[in-house]
Amino acid sequence: MNMKTWLLSAAMTLAAVSAQAQTSVKIGVLNDRSGLYADITGEGSAIAARMAVEDFKAADKGIKAEIVVADHQNKPDIGAAIARQWYDRDGVDMIIDVPTSSVALAVSQITKEKNKVYINSGGGTSDLTGAQCSPNTIHWTYDTWALANGTGTAMVQRGGNTWFFITADYAFGAALERDASALVTKAGGKVVGSVKHPFPGTDFSSFLLQAQASGAKVVALANAGGDTINSVKQAAEFGIVKGGQSIAGLLVFISDVKSLGLNVAQGLVLTESFYWDNNDQTRAFSKRFAEKNNGKMPSMVQAGVYAGTLHYLKAIEAMKAKDDGLKVINKMKEMPTDDPLFGKGSIRPDGRKLHDMYLFEVKKPSESKGEWDLYKTLATIPADKAFRPMADGGCAFVKG
Q: Leucine-binding protein domain location, by residue (predicted)?
């Protein structure tokens, strides 16, 4: 063998060894890219996932990470079909985001069947770590219990002891009203009525008139995205706050407040797990994110996609393998979480990611110092108090 042939053979051998050493993972960002949740998830979540891959320097660590995206249109049948195709035909290893609780629950079950990895950042129902828990699912960012615990308890403590719910008629709305009602009652309040609205909705006038007529001190909106925006706008038109009632947005995102404007949204109390202006690290990330997202700051869902993707890649690096989804999930649970957006945390055996939650109040226009300076912090809810105790969730695969 001459030197030229030998060098070529050696190069091919090294390339083959390198290829074998590299772990390829395909991450599917599944969400609403065209409907009422597109601003809080959508392309922003895909940007967040790509940023996580870049910041982790996955390629330098022997991980080839590919991001694919799809629009589930907030329909469980479409979301389930995409998840099956991704797992069965397209080689997707992990699905992340998935707003709309009915879709989130469907994807959770399919992921379990296929023994893949599912990190939910967008869906709210606490059933993901309760009655419909799965050992292949991690619920990262927030849930209906945490929202109800933060906003519901705070509003009762501030004197809002009678409640009327306007609830989106699907899995998320039902779970949010259920969890909020229980926590309001526990805090000494009383639910005096509720009404369900179609999902998505446009005209909330009849529901708001019922809330007004109830005389409840708090009109609670158990909905999200465009439904919340329209509800709050129409509540302002009906003079509900001027009439002495308070509006509780049980799931409000920064994009909702931006859309509403401070004149309409001022004084709204809400619970989130992330705010771009929390600290130097969240500000640095959010500035980079906004540059890629048409100047828009990240929602907590998009922040959760970034952090969840980062932790997944850490587990893949530690294992040097990806084929057994349950083993990857267990590695993620075993490893402490640590990222610039949520800080240090952990993942419980039932799949609930633990971190602090924050109670915010929307600023008055006179208090805001910039376009995205929208919140002031009322309280920090520590991780061990922010989420439903595992023993109360009823997750079947958790022992003890």
A: 24-363
